[in-house]
């Protein structure tokens, strides 16, 4: 069942899509959220308010402080350890409890206290391991003050994400006499050893531990054990669990099930954990969460790691579940039984981090309690998981799609620096145009492959290119089975003694744990591999020929094949220091030397805006010696690579230079191909490029009459005729509202628009926080949120590149104000009624191959004191030039 409140569009700048509901097999909906305020990027980002409601209204009638995450600029403990190890030429083995880490974390905590004290607030939650951040209750003014500090990277309102909604080990080549279990783990015990010594952390809705998928012996009590993969409860403690891992380090978890500040846990005890489920922690929202009662007809929840929705149990058992027969209850009440099947890495250990919660509230009045995964809970869980010592994190939850300084993506950056592999869902909005979620290069983003006679990517699976990297990084990374996956869920009776229940679910949530499990298998055999080496092995050995539709923007490098990943021969690695360089190159001020996105040493190459030949490089790390023939194919482009490369010793850096130049490619059209190294092994990297005119994104000009020159470049000889729209004047409406109110503007009807800009401007910005929503009227006559901009600012701007015909209205949410807030709602619609004139010359423009030409925009007839909008579009440019006039 697909339920979508609107058809989302790709938005520019500060815009963020309104929440989408995508219910598949009863799974909770997913929404992609973007940042709220970024001092680093020099402009405000955007996000929906947590729960859409904001903070509580105080007795004085003004909005009380709301929850924020403040991310500091200094390295987290994991990033600091990675930087120190690299400088010393030593392997990265992060230990959160080491003397150096403890001292570093203490210093970060002091910096949190100092920053909070500077604005007169207290710290609610310190994050120091994966992410250097703290949460606090802030007013909009306090948030803006912190965002302006030189030691602060970004400030985000706490937002709520959603879990993303039979592929068995058989479909991945794991079973049978020639499968991975037999060939790679047979001598150690087969499936029961597959993943031994590896801990997979599942960030989700919790777990139903009594399900047979999580069967295990009671944890023995011991003071120490050197046996790899043999967990125990530490003697002398109440609930501490310990396990020696495959890399020789130690995992240390907890099985009390207690929420912070509580002395008892709902339907949970230390004995709930086992030799399979070795740790379970809960991370409820720091503010505002109240557990529904067990009798609440709108939805229940446990104040413990126990799973109420089934999503977490399903993903966890898909990754590491033990083999068990499965019986599924069908819609008509009948049952269907399946033979015994296991998760991908049935010998691995499971650590649960419950970050998604049902609330004791139904604010949208849909008859079901609100639910979601607040990002303060998520980043706190990531921080703890890295400190505990997990090897793999499974994240079947929504994420940002058009930004990288999102706190969750930054926390994953810290986790990757500490050596933790992260698999994340690409999202379920492929049919509606939203780009793939979780766009960071340090995570492995997974698409949903279907099995309906032929293998293909599900239409709902979100696709690339990725606007977060300006289309210069391929996402998703690869695809795994994610349609009609049968795995563990809670029983419908909620009884802990009821028979184990299983359910079929579909979505990228289901494909992601297949990759998490595959990573656990690899790390069990190669525990010193870095997350990027694991990602490289999985991507470069994936099967790109499986799919009926060959589209790497849907499937990434191809279909997951764990078997060949055990012997890739060559792998790519990227030092943690390059993560900050990557961010710096995309405008996030980390202070590191800027690195072009196309130069990030990952297992794919994407060039989104090729106006002249581009040269990049990939540096391989050989795991075997030999010579590899290098070939590249990219229709419409000439790709120059070395004839061959040779590795005379294991570990020797093997660079491969790749020069991409347009030959016959049509301007503005993506071409897809492969870079292949063939020798002792075969390694494939997806290669995509788009040749186009290079034009400026924005021009900001002044004067009632004037001119402005700009440059147009082209990879081949062409004559281009520009389409010019505007200038158009704003249509404005003045309104006011008390704190906590929503004020709708006047409805307007329009045809298809190439560009629409909407702004909300407060008359008195001090102490005011207003949010802007664009709503669309449905066929039933109701209003639904189409897009929104919700920063910590009093003023908002929302740009929509393409707005389909319909009836819309702007709505202001008075999130905070010292009293009644007065504001102006404005809209510019292109095409629209022109005021004055705008032209470009020469038009058409002729450009030589690989050359550039200066074009001059001229305008006249504008009125001083007003703001106008125009647009210049060339047929072979993927994006127009937006012109803002401020006479």
TrEMBL record:
Boundaries of every Inhibitor I9 domain copy: 68-157
Keyword Protease: yes
Polar residues bias spans: 306-325
InterPro entries reported in the protein's UniProt record: Peptidase_S8/S53_dom, Peptidase_S8/S53_dom_sf, Peptidase_S8_Ser-AS, Peptidase_S8_subtilisin-rel, S8pro/Inhibitor_I9, SBT
Transmembrane segments: none
Chain intervals for the UniProt region annotation (Disordered): 291-325, 456-475
Every Peptidase S8/S53 domain range: 195-545
Residues annotated as catalytic: 204, 311, 509
Pfam families per UniProt: Inhibitor_I9, Peptidase_S8
Record's compositionally biased regions (Low complexity): 458-469
UniProtKB keywords: Hydrolase, Protease, Serine protease
Family: Belongs to the peptidase S8 family.
PANTHER family, alphabetized: PROPROTEIN CONVERTASE SUBTILISIN/KEXIN (PTHR10795)
Name the record gives this protein: Peptidase S8/S53 domain-containing protein
